[in-house]
Specification:
mainly beta; 9 strands
């Protein structure tokens, strides 16, 4: 299989409509069958009023077909502590996901700086 149990993924939902809710998910694969994964982790929702992504405090379990065209999926280091990941703006880069230690993921790599 391409995706293995224990791997950690960062998934961005593609917006279908101009005013669609912008959602991201970061979690650990706890089961997989092909590209369909059961993941346990955190949701980040874009808050239009705050103009930033907000991490929901509760962990949740979700099922996604990560090969579906509506998702942009990144495999991240399995040593990352999911609770430590947050979003912030980095000068001359834009929006990044980081644990403020060894992990940094440029959220803008598929478009212009946020």
């Amino acid at each position: 299989m391409i995706i293995e149990v224990g791997e950690k993924l960062h998934i961005m939902y593609r917006s279908i409509y101009e005013n669609s809710t912008r959602r991201h998910f970061i979690g650990e694969v706890i089961a997989t069958q092909g590209s369909v994964c059961r993941l346990h982790g955190y949701v980040f929702i874009y808050d239009v009023k705050k103009t930033e992504f907000v991490k929901k405090p509760e962990k949740r379990t979700t099922i996604m077909d990560v090969a579906e065209s509506g998702y942009i999926t990144n495999v991240i280091d399995s040593a990352i502590v999911l609770e430590d990941v947050r979003y912030k703006y980095a000068q001359n880069v834009g929006l990044i996901a980081t644990d403020e230690k060894s992990f940094t993921l440029n959220i803008n790599e598929f478009g212009i700086k946020s």
